[in-house]
Amino acid sequence: MTSSPSPPTSSDTEGSIEVNPPHPQPQDNPSKINQLTKSRSMIARFNGSSTRRHAELDDEEGKAQFFLTLLFASIEDSAGLFAGTVLFLVVWAILCSFGAQELRGLAAATPGGAAEQWLDDIESCKNAVSIIGTLFVFTLVFRFNACYDRWWESRIFWGDIISKCLELGMMNRRWFANEELQDRFSRFVIVYSYACKSMLRGKSLTEEGEDGPDLVKRGLLTQQELDLMEGVPSWQPHFCLDMLREVIAQLHIIPGGKGLRMDDTNKIHGQLFRCLDNTLKHMNDLIGNCVRIRASGLPASYDAITMTSFITFFLLASAVWSTAIGWMTPIVVFLASMIIMFLIVMGTKLVDPFGSDKVDIPLECFCATIEAQVHAIDQRGKSIIAVASASNSKKAVRPLAVRSESKATFHIPRLA
After folding, report:
1. Alpha-helix residue ranges (DSSP H) falling in 296-362
2. Nearest 5°: CA angle at 234, between 228 and 240?
3. Can you tell me the distance from the alpha carbon of 205 to that of 187, in angstroms, rounded to the nearest whole number?
4. Among 48, 137, 205, 324, which residue carries the largest CB count within 10 Å?
């Protein structure tokens, strides 16, 4: 069950820390050892396959590959619309170029005739087409900014979720005194992040491809807890928040205030509950904001106005450009319409930033970071207490053994 202490082994390369949960001490009661051993297996090594989905391309050599992957991933579900729209506009541009060529031939054959008048009228429409193009660009930028704001807002909310989870982990190891409840608290802080990820993708932790069974295997949940989460008609992140509140309540009702490191005579004892509850309220607000982003898409009028102005502009522009640049018109229309369709389709992808596409935010990386960092907090909590006790007693204390098992940080690529 136990191993002799050994010097810590840590890897500081690129800011990573490798940690492993401590083993129960031999003086513990055997029944308590079994409970703590099972509980402390909660932060086992993270299965990095999902993390590598984003992280494997986060280097100098992979930037070009990653860019192309994002570019084509943004249209993979809308390839038919993309290709059909561009092809239609190119064909129209070819017809306009052919018509302009015929008009120029007729105008040369009959100077001052109807063909020459038509060419003059078409060329005089340049200012009108420029105005329509300006309005179209405005609608396109307005729509894309609205889509991007949703994506960026979701990144901010998940950054706050990570921050609050780690804040709870640190308060847990600094203020609580009951090891069993501490371990349970850490478990549900980690499970909260995975529950958020599943719910924002419209799934449950128990569904195929989600993390519920893996969480049970890693000791972060018991099968009974997972079945209870699935059976209770509630959002699973809120189930985790209720479990965290229950742990806090159990700590506060331990006689004599012994559930906390400060007894009930300490003047800050009563303030700890308010601090913890405010953090849980903030976490509830954060997942609520993420649900709001996912549930409220863009108004249908945004897409209708954008596509209408897009088609209208290129139909008119192709006719006007063909009289000036001739057979270069299809080439210009092809390149310009393709870029604009990329923006339109990519904006549509950004409307729901919580999916599993490569343009979505890397929820797997965020959850893995929370799990590994809570693990690191639990490990260093023991060392900090030991060092602080040694400073007070003026005794030298050997640092706790740290074994290489899981990194505490993950490189997350910038998609913006």
Report:
1. 300-325, 329-351
2. 65
3. 15
4. 205
pTM of the model: 0.71
| Torsion region of 257: left, alpha or beta (phi above 0 gives left; psi -120 to 50 gives alpha) | left
256 Ramachandran zone, left/alpha/beta (phi>0; psi -120 to 50): left
Contact 215, 226 (CB under 8 A): yes
The H or E element that residue 416 is part of is none
Max intra-chain CA distance, the chain: 109
From CA 405, how far away is CA 408, in angstroms rounded? Answer: 10
- Of the candidates 52, 63, 56, 70, the one whose C-alpha atom is nearest the C-alpha of residue 349 is 70
Total Cβ atoms within 10 A of residue 282: 14
Q: Determine whether 386 is exposed, middle or buried from the number of CB atoms within 10 Å of its CB (0-12, 13-18, 19+).
A: middle
How far apart are the C-alpha atoms of 102 and 134, rounded to whole Å? 30
- Quickly tell me which residue has 């401590």 as its tokens: 22
Contact of 354 with 290, CB cutoff 8 Å: yes
- Helical segments of 201-268, H only: 212-217, 223-231, 236-252
pLDDT digits (tens, 9 = 90+) for 99-154: 988 888 888 888 878 888 888 888 888 888 999 999 999 989 988 888 889 999 99
Torsion of CA 243, 249, 251, 256, to 10 degrees: -170
Q: What is the pLDDT of residues 154-169, one digit of tens each?
A: 999 999 999 999 999 9
| Surface-to-core class of residue 261, CB atoms within 10 Å of its CB (0-12 exposed, 13-18 middle, 19+ buried) | middle
Burial of residue 99 (CB within 10 Å: 0-12, 13-18, 19+) is middle
With beta carbons less than 8 A apart as the criterion, state whether 379 and 369 touch. Answer: no
Distance from chain centroid for Cα 22: 31
Contacts 24+ apart (CB under 8 A), 227-234: 229/195, 229/205, 230/204, 230/205, 230/206
Closest CA to 302 of 347, 352, 341, 338: 347
Other Cβ atoms within 10 Å of 366 Cβ, number: 22
